[in-house]
Amino acid sequence: MTPLPTRRRLASGKVRDLYEVGDDHLLIVASDRISAFERVFPTPVPDKGRVLTAMSAFWFGELADVLPNHLVVCDGPLVPDAVRGRALLVERLDMLPVEAIVRGYLTGRGYADYRGYGEVCGLALPPGLAESARLPEPIFTPSTKARPGDKDENIDFDTCVSVLGRALAEEVREASLELYRRGAARAAEQGLLLADTKFEFGTDSRGRLVLADELLTPDSARYWLADGHEPGLPQPSFDKQHVRDWLVDPASGWDCVSPLPPLPPEVVTATRDRYIEAYHRITGLSLADWPRDPA
Ligand code: ATP
Ligand code: MG
User: Fold this and answer.
1) Residue 126 CA, distance from chain mean position
2) What fold is seen in the domain 94-225?
3) 164: Cβ below 6 Å to ligand 1?
4) For site-directed labelling of 138, which of 7, 44, 54, 196 has its Cα 20 to 30 A away?
5) Ligand 1 within 6 A of CB of 92
6) Where are the alpha helices (DSSP H) in the chain?
7) What interface predicted TM-score (ipTM) does this complex get?
8) Pocket-testing residue among 10, 198, 200, ligand 1, by greatest number of atoms within 8 A of Cβ
9) Distance from Cα 126 to the centre of ligand 2, integer Å
């Protein structure tokens, strides 16, 4: 973690650190930490924090017409040099206690629920869908936002309504589905499938719904290569494929229980290249040009 002596640190997740800036703003700093199976590797992946931050900033700009978002600036005097390129200054919001997940393909926990009960978050799906299959249409599958150490739980829409109220729950669902459709369309133009993703929302001082957190980054979304998509099998993740393949190979020596081992240099390099490639493909921009002028 990068200590920022003039800022109070509010929280640290697996990958990002959150600092207070006055009463109304936060600095969200993405590190180069990389996680797998809910744990963090001891070896950083250089530039990963820059990629995550640049990609969020790109998507906040790209999707700003869907609804307002929390991004204020990505550069300038309020962003300390030590974290320049890895930090977003955002409006501090009252976060909604749900994670707004949208799935366009059947994978991960969505697939596990479908196999068990034929439905995901109370939404019945046609029988006979294979793992990684494209869904007839994208579905909104919210979950609770657990405290650190607890597990998020999938909830059905009625439970989401009881937590948020009907009007807000419907607004979150419609915004999430639209953000997903727009994101998936752009990814598809670049040969990537947006399998699923998570959005987080908050409300501002006027009670307006605002998009927050990170947006359509490899840490909050699953991207797959469209070429070679093969329903019936788990699909390799575009970004963490090398890390996971290496980790589950017996040669890594990992026993599924111990802390994660250090990553070998060739896996770090291949993973770094993948993150940078994801940024270039999706945005059409060069990471070398990031951050640009204050937004
Ligand atoms: P994990 O490592 O599993 O992601 P985490 O979600 O606790 O853990 P982060 O994602 O690093 O860790 O933390 C970011 C936190 O900041 C989240 O709790 C998120 O809800 C919150 N957050 C994001 N945007 C805002 C905002 N504009 N105002 C207030 N809180 C925000
Ligand atoms: Mg998080």
Assistant:
1) 27
2) D-amino Acid Aminotransferase; Chain A, domain 1 (3.30.470)
3) no
4) 54
5) yes
6) 48-62, 108-117, 157-164, 166-189, 241-248, 265-283
7) 0.96
8) 200
9) 31
Q: 1-92: which CATH architecture?
A: 2-Layer Sandwich (3.30)
Question: What pTM was estimated for this model as a whole?
Answer: 0.94
Q: What is the pLDDT of residues 7-57, one digit of tens each?
A: 788 889 899 999 999 999 999 999 999 999 889 999 999 999 999 999 999
Check the CA dihedral 86-212-119-37 and report its sign.
positive
Q: In the chain, what are the domain boundaries? A: 1-92, 94-225
Q: Kindly state if the Cβ of 70 falls inside 6 Å of ligand 1.
A: yes
E strand intervals along the chain? 8-12, 16-21, 25-30, 35-36, 39-40, 71-73, 87-91, 94-95, 98-105, 119-120, 123-124, 134-140, 143-144, 192-203, 209-212, 221-225
> Ligand 1: does its nearest atom lie under 6 Å from the Cβ of 26?
yes
Residue with the smallest CA separation from ligand 1 atom 1 is 13
Question: Residue 229 contacts by C-beta under 8 Å, 6 or more apart in sequence?
Answer: 132, 193, 235
What sign does the CA torsion over 135, 138, 143, 148 have? positive
Q: What residue's CA is closest to ligand 1, atom 24?
A: 213
Q: List residues bridging with 123 in a β-sheet.
A: 120
DSSP state of 121: T
